[in-house]
Design brief:
five-stranded parallel sheet, 17 helices, alpha/beta, 520 residues
Length: 520
């Protein structure tokens, strides 16, 4: 046999044996995984088989946090449990309209849809030049045909500078309208004179099961909506209510009381989560900060909204700013990665990736390489750059957090490692994405957050380094048990405390006004 033939034979044999070994490993891996699904106690508990989850300590807060009287001593002075009306509709619409013009044209369409608001571009004479929103007027339709005679007359008067806000009937009900000078060209067709904003109450709503909480799915809650109890994503019974501002917290006082330093915590379910409004990480952060300062000078508002992502944070910034924050703390990642990046990468997979992604032993090859992932992650963090820019223009400090996760697979007991892989594939990232793959992408995200903070000279809170653990504090790959919420709040407090202005610990607690409306 010639040298060339021998080389071809050896290479072919090696390839054949490689395929045999790969398929053997895959068969054994799948057999092992079937056993895991049948025997892993965490998976069986998660799947509702009636088997209790091993260990319950992670569900317990420390005794001091269960002492409601102690928590009350250090409650922020800018919120109240007393009944307050929902925020003034005209003030809210005005703030959202102002923010509309800070958005690019692509973002303005989801803004109008998610807020159920119609935006008409009007000429100085009151003619309709165009629209953003879910119910645009028909071509050639007059303002009277669109709004009715009375609302159209008020709108025309607004075009002439008579009023910014007015109430007029539309479809048999009174609605608040807001008119303001239009900023920029209308789709390249020249500058309209006025933008007219008004709520579109007839827009069809696509709401989740707990629809008495939502105004717009996974974006805005209905102010003052309440449920006595619901079960969250990790099976925890949670008492849940919405305040006058549309967030899961006590009612917010505006104007903000004098001398109060207000922190607004922005995020999704990992910010919002907890067994009660009082026992979320923002509320515990408030407790730890005020106790460290020896008084009640810091107010922390939980502005987390389940299911929200960084695209929607950009749209929702007006609501955060209405809270009059001195600092915004952003804890964000999971929805962008699991519901944004992973589906995009799986859908856009190459032929080779599609061929190998069903093999569990090669699942790491199902996703793009590090350079491609980093490019997409950087686009995601551009939304946070926008938030930082808008806050800085108003003198508001922003701190960005790295995002916590359970320990890497090599540091976990096999039973916990298998559970985290199970929930990654079953609940959050899809069947082609392993827990290890999720951690690699999350690591890139955290690295980009750190780089963004260095570039902007803003604080980076390394929550990922400070809150480490496994099933003792994590319910899944990012939601935390009660013990984890406590640990995160304590770590946050240690990192935020040095960022507070000097003098907060001195003096008596400020007086709190009785009104909670933004226009009071």
């Amino acid at each position: 046999m010639s040298r060339t033939a021998r080389t071809v034979f050896l290479l072919g044999s090696a390839l054949l044996w490689g395929i045999v070994l790969l398929l053997g490993a895959e068969v054994l891996g799948r057999a092992r995984w079937r056993r895991v699904l049948d025997t892993n106690p965490y998976i069986r508990a998660w799947s509702g088989s009636g088997v209790p989850e091993p260990g319950t300590n992670g569900n317990q807060f420390s005794e001091e946090l269960l002492d409601e009287a102690l928590r009350d001593r250090f409650r922020g002075p800018g919120q109240t449990r007393e009944p307050l009306p929902a925020w003034d509709a005209a003030t809210v619409l005005r703030a959202r309209a102002e923010h509309f013009f800070a958005l690019d044209k692509v973002a303005r369409r989801p803004f109008a849809s998610l807020y159920h608001v119609q935006v008409l571009a009007l000429s100085a004479e009151g003619d309709i030049l165009g629209a953003y929103g879910p119910a645009p007027p028909k071509p050639g339709q007059s303002l009277e045909e669109c709004l009715g005679a009375e609302a159209a007359a008020r709108a025309r008067a607004a075009c002439a500078g008579a009023a910014d806000d007015f109430t007029a009937p539309l479809d048999g009900e009174d609605r608040v309208f807001h008119a303001r000078p239009f900023s920029g060209d209308w789709q390249g067709g020249g500058p309209p004179a006025v933008a007219l904003f008004y709520p579109n109450t007839r827009q069809p709503r696509d709401l989740p099961d707990d629809n008495d909480l939502w105004d717009s799915s996974f974006f805005t809650y209905r102010p003052l909506a309440a449920l006595r109890q619901r079960v969250d994503v990790i099976g925890r019974a949670a008492q849940f209510s919405i305040n006058n501002a549309g967030f899961r917290d006590d009612n917010v006082l505006l104007p903000k009381p004098p001398g109060v330093f207000r922190i607004v915590c922005v995020g999704a379910s990992t910010t919002e989560e907890g067994p009660s409004n009082d026992l979320t990480y923002p509320n515990l952060l408030e407790f730890y900060l005020n106790r460290a300062l020896g008084g009640r000078r810091v107010d922390v508002v939980n502005a987390g909204v389940s299911g929200i992502n960084s695209d929607k944070h950009v749209l929702k910034l007006a609501d955060y700013l209405l809270l009059e924050p001195d600092m915004i703390v952003v804890y964000n990642a999971a929805n962008d990665i699991c519901h944004g990046l992973f589906p995009k990468w799986v859908t856009g997979a190459s032929a080779l990736q599609r061929a190998v992604r069903s093999l569990r032993v090669l699942d790491a090859l199902a996703l793009p390489g590090e350079a491609a992932q980093r490019r997409d992650v950087r686009k995601m963090t551009a939304n946070l750059s926008f938030l930082c820019d808008q806050a800085a223009a108003r003198g508001i400090r922003v701190a960005l957090c790295t995002f916590a996760a359970p320990l890497p697979p090599a540091e976990l007991p096999p039973v916990e490692r298998d559970f985290f892989d199970f929930v990654t594939r079953r609940n959050w990232a899809g069947k082609y994405v392993s827990y290890a793959s999720y951690l690699r992408t999350l690591g890139l995200y955290n690295g980009e957050i750190e780089a963004l903070c260095r570039e902007r000279g803003i604080p980076c809170l390394p929550v990922a380094d400070r809150v480490r653990g496994s099933k003792d504090i994590f319910g899944d790959i990012f939601h935390m048990k009660n013990r984890g919420i406590e640990r995160k709040a304590r770590a946050m407090a240690e990192m935020v405390l040095p960022l507070l202005p000097e003098g907060l610990s001195a003096g008596a607690a400020p007086q709190t006004p009785s009104s909670g409306s933004p226009d009071s």
